[in-house]
Design brief:
By secondary structure, the chain is mainly alpha-helical. It has one domain (6-51, 91-155). The chain is built from seven helices and no strands. The protein has helices spanning 6-27, 32-43, 59-67, 71-85, 97-121, 127-131, 133-155. α2 packs across α7 and α3 runs antiparallel to α4. The longest helix has 25 residues, at 97-121. It starts with 5 loop residues before the first helix and ends with a helix.
């Protein structure tokens, strides 16, 4: 079975973003900040994609290199251990489970950065997720919509 291409997934995510934002608008009673966060979460599916479990260069890394030279390679380096630990189209492609797996993976790096900043700059970066947990959940909800679209395209 032929799977959808990275370009198809990117296009689907772009199309799902306003739908996700509109749904958030309706569900939050017109809260523009939460609407934007949900839309950003969905759109981030282009870069925090289930396909980050691929060993090779993904469309997101290609786009990042095209827009900001070198960032795609840094993104690829960040996700290299994830790609080695994950089987392509395994749990990483399951909606919700795959999304949460990538969020936890990013969280591990966030905690590492927190300890560096805390040691050198006496800054507590762990306070941010505690203060903005609702916004974080809305963002992850938007990302989950993108992942669901990815899964549907891969299945059909």
């Amino acid at each position: 079975m032929q799977m959808a291409s990275g370009r198809t997934h990117t296009s689907a995510t772009v199309l799902l973003t306003p739908v996700t934002a509109y749904a958030a608008w309706q569900l939050t009673g017109g809260d523009t900040a939460l609407t934007a966060i949900a839309g950003a979460g969905c759109l981030s599916g282009i870069f925090i994609s289930p396909d980050l479990d691929l060993s090779g260069k993904t469309i997101s890394e290609t786009l990042l290199n095209k827009w900001i030279i070198g960032v795609g390679w840094l993104w690829m380096l960040l996700w290299y251990p994830y790609a080695k630990l994950s089987k392509h189209r395994g749990c990483s492609h399951v909606p919700i489970i795959g999304t949460l797996g990538r969020i936890v993976y990013l969280g591990i790096f966030y905690i590492g950065i927190h300890f560096i900043f805390q040691h050198y700059y006496a800054t507590d970066l762990l306070i941010w997720p505690q203060l903005y947990w609702q916004q974080l959940l809305i963002f992850v909800g938007g990302l989950t919509v993108s992942d669901f679209g990815h899964w549907v395209l891969d299945k059909w």
